[in-house]
Automatic annotation (TrEMBL):
This is Cupin domain-containing protein. It holds the Pfam family Cupin_2. It comes from Thermosporothrix hazakensis. Residues 33-100 form the Cupin type-2 domain. It comes from the Bacteria. SUPFAM superfamilies: RmlC-like cupins. InterPro entries: Cupin_2, Flavonoid_dioxygenase-like, RmlC-like_jellyroll, RmlC_Cupin_sf.
Amino acid sequence: MYTLLPKENIQLNATAYRFQGREYGNIPLSFFWVLTPPGKGPDMHVHPYKEIFVLLHGQATFTIGNETLIIHAGNVVIVPANTPHQFKNSGEEPLQMLSMHPSEAVVQEFLDR
């Protein structure tokens, strides 16, 4: 038996979709599929597991710990567990990216809140 999910079924807000594996038979994977406008992105946060980013289109500036990196489409970034990080769309067009969470639910703590 398979499951087919139109992206509208997992829409979180105007620019993000969130799949949580626990809602589909306790799959040990969750992800965000983002379409982030220029200048936008999440605030600094941490996860108790590694997070894997797949940049599909555009450019992002990542802050990972004390490092700042400019990453372009076609690259994968792996952020270690419990490492403060954030990204902002530093390009001129929407950033399309997947962020994979090896957990049946997204677990994150924002540090500036």
